[in-house]
Amino acid sequence: MGRILIVMSAADVWERTDGSEYPTGYWAEELAAPHERFVGAGHTVDFASPGGVLQPLDRHSADPEIAGEDCARHVAHARRALGDFGPLLKLAEVSADVYDAIVLPGGHGPVVDLFQDGDLGRLLLDADRAGKVVGAVCHGPAALLSAVDERGEWIFAGRRMAAFTDEEEQMFGTAENAPWLLASRLREAGARHEQGDPYQPFTVQDGNLFTGQNPASSAPMADAINDALAAG
């Protein structure tokens, strides 16, 4: 079986253009559903973040009116998985060589720190050049923006991908005063952004790149990654 690295943001606030701070953290379903699928398929899963900082839970992902009636199970699984793993690995000390896949869950944190994290950029460059699986869901694709090569070019330009849409950001109530909107930024950077219906499962595979649009896309994305790893 394979070894998978889930890379989390370390951010707990998202600074807005009006100067306010929006509390953020990992989104339970986006961490728990892939972890559950990966472990169920027999893979070993590690967790890493900038500086090894454990990001808090995004409280919205524990609210059944927002995250659905199954959110309590996702919260419990995420907390158990993180607790069992222990201290997170530090991104600066991680090598892509030992992993078969790098997976990036969301919450708003990736638009705060991971999108410009040099250590993550190095990791993604190495993984993509080796043809290893790269996965990202919801706001996780913001982290892909860190993968800029020696020529200053974004290695995922021209690739098909899904991500949390501008429409979903507006529906969630966080578009106003956002420093930038993810789907728009990805298109501006050269991504071939695709989208499905708001808050419905939608995933895209482009070669070794697997992406999902929103929390509901977390499990389907993980299943697609499992299938790819099983196929070798």
From TrEMBL:
Residues 30-224 form the DJ-1/PfpI domain. Belongs to the peptidase C56 family. HSP31-like subfamily. One of its GO terms (cellular component) is cytoplasm. InterPro entries: Class_I_gatase-like, DJ-1/PfpI, Prot/Nucl_acid_deglycase. GO terms for biological process: methylglyoxal catabolic process to D-lactate via S-lactoyl-glutathione. GO terms for molecular function: glyoxalase III activity. The keyword Ribonucleoprotein does not apply. Signal peptide: none annotated. It comes from the Bacteria. This is Ovm1. Keywords: Lyase, Stress response. It holds the Pfam family DJ-1_PfpI. Gene3D superfamilies: 3.40.50.880.
